[in-house]
Phosphoribosylformylglycinamidine synthase subunit PurS
Amino acid sequence: MTRFRCAIHIVPRRGILDPQGKAVADALHSLGFATVGEVRVGRHVVVEIEAASEDAARDQVKAMCEKLLANPVTEDFEIASLGHA
Amino acid sequence: MTRFRCAIHIVPRRGILDPQGKAVADALHSLGFATVGEVRVGRHVVVEIEAASEDAARDQVKAMCEKLLANPVTEDFEIASLGHA
């Protein structure tokens, strides 16, 4: 078995209201960052996992996202990076 | 002015307790993902901003992280990507 480290981005699906993103955008404007446009706030999750291969690790991470980490109705996820820990 | 899109990762500083990461790791174990090791949960923020150049955009994003987005005591930030929107 090999230890892998995987970074996952979980973001609000496009078209779905992102109140957190809106709040951050408003706060940035009030701090003087006038040229800020859309802001989207999601989660950056880094998972260490032991697996037989990189593909096996990728499959497990996908299953984790589908079962727990990402809300299938309102969020999208992407595996941003996967490599040896 | 040009419109840029920037992705920022804000993560708990190493050595600082990450209760959210611990909770996610425990939940993954209980779902049968036994080979999961450390889990760290941070924020993935995507900001659209107009700036005169890529360097100017990078400087503004850094200032946003230092002033608002990242807690200077408990979190580290990195600009994961910066390019034309």
Remarks:
- The helical segments of chain A are 19-30, 54-69.
- The domain at 2-84 of chain A is CATH 3.30.1280.10 (Mth169; Chain: A ,).
- The first helix of chain A runs from residue 19 to 30.
